[in-house]
Amino acid sequence: MVQGDYTTQYGMIRDYVLELKKQIPCTTVKIQVEEGTNTNLPTRRFKRIYVCFGALKQGFKAIGRDLLGLDGAFMKGPFTGQILSVVGVDPNNGIYPVSFAVVETENLSSWTWFLENLGDDLDLGPNSCFTFMSDRKKGLLPAIENLFPCAEHRFCVRHIHDNFKATYRGKLYKDLLYKCAHATTIPEFETSMDELKAFNPDAHLWLSNIHPKHWSKSHFSGRTVSDMLINNMCEVFNGKIVEGRDMPIISALEYIREYLMRSIVNVLEVIDKSEGLLTPTATTELQNIRTNAAHYTVQWNGGDLYQVSGRPCKQRVVDLVKRTCTCRRWELTGIPCEHVVATIWNKALNGGRVGAVESWVNPVHRMDTWRQVYSFKINPINGRPLWPRSQMHTALTPPKHNKQVGRPKKARKRSAFELEDLTQGGKLSKKETKGACSKCGNTGHNIRTCKQAR
Fold first, then answer.
1. Which among 292, 354, 352 has a CA at the least distance from the CA of 327?
2. Pairwise CA distance, residues 243 & 238, whole Å
3. Are 436 and 447 in contact (CB under 8 A)?
4. Are 177 and 158 contacting, i.e. CB atoms less than 8 angstroms apart?
5. Are 417 and 166 in contact (CB under 8 A)?
6. Sign of the C-alpha dihedral, residues 224, 230, 236, 241?
7. Which of 190, 208, 272, 317 is the 20 to 30 Å CA partner of 306?
């Protein structure tokens, strides 16, 4: 009675959509039905639904970071489907969901429809220089290439490593792969690739088939103000909505909306407790950079350039006018690297007006930007009896459902490598599990230390 019925909720989706648009301004919701249905029938079979709340749309545009992660997760109810999600990164490097959709499956058609709606909401055209991050899904790759040919598309390095270790396993292979991915300049990248080639030419050939512009920092542009290599933002979002994916369609959509409401409130509480010019994450990172900058010495050429050295193979050239460093970390992250911080200190000692180091950080990382992003809030909605009534003459029916033999599977299917990593000596490892007390059932202790057992 609380969650509703899996079948009847499809007939109330249109009423639910009217209530969303009424209570949350600028919200986009689009429903697509199955094609080829007899137009004389009083029903239409549900196929897809796309949701982008107006508050999240405005908040993402206020971030100033043109980076979005794309991913899908399966529904667990009797009607199969996938939840496609688009998640950005806020000024504190936290997740910022932008939109989501429930579709029949992950393929070229569903991803194209989803990205077309996303492009309309975020004003993205074919010439948009945007950055997307995902794994190498077959349907997603051509969809991005067709709709946004000028976009930068990063591949999640963790997924690349999962495919890489199918043939080349071991910590050394992993370290060499990530060393190539973390290289910020092309010479450093080529040196790391040569190390892999010397260790195993076949592994080098396998990795060379993936263009480094998709997975190495050395080939990333700096327009996204982020050097992220892993699509963690989507993984976190999918984990937060995992319970909602087992509910009826409207209950699942409401579970996601309520989670987004709570997450905004939680961030606002952190913002109220934070002080300073920069967000907490940027403040911590800049403090670590300051510590490293103390080890460098600076030589000025009398013009705009500075030579910064002090550690082996770490000599770089800084240009404060163009705001560049040859290590490219300032360009990629928007936070001055240790070479730049050392240069700023040197210029200040020689009477130059440079201001605080925080003033050289990209506005994306500032507290005022963070506050502005979360000033847009998702409004609550009324209960079902107060929803507006749709004037459509046709009713929506559930999608086709092919019942499979056996008990329905709820958990995600683990790959063979994940299962192997979880086992040790032929037994299931308890590394990823939390033991429960046999007396009270709570985690974190056992019956020997249980207070209730005494």
1. 292
2. 10
3. no
4. no
5. yes
6. positive
7. 190
Quote the CA–CA distance of 217 and 317 in Å, as a whole number.
19
CA-nearest of 100, 142, 149, 155 to 124 is 149
Rounded to an integer, what is the distance from CA 24 to the centroid of its chain?
Answer: 24
CA distance 243 to 255: 8
pLDDT tens by residue, 361-391? 999 999 999 999 999 999 999 999 999 999 9
Q: Phi then psi for 312, rounded to 5 degrees? A: -55, 130
Question: In the beta sheet, which residues pair with residue 88?
Answer: 96
Closest listed residue to residue 12, CA positions, set 390, 393, 382: 390
Q: Which two tokens stand for residue 365?
A: 């990382």
Percent of the chain with pLDDT over 90: 73
Task: Give me the residue spans of the domains in the chain.
Answer: 8-156+231-270+372-386, 280-365
Lookup result for tokens 């440079």: 354
Q: How far apart are CA 50 and CA 37, in angstroms?
A: 21
Q: Indicate the residue type of 203.
A: A
- Which amino acid, residue 356? A
Q: What does the pLDDT look like over 130-149, one tens digit per residue?
A: 999 999 888 899 999 999 99
Cβ atoms of 118 and 99 closer than 8 Å:
yes
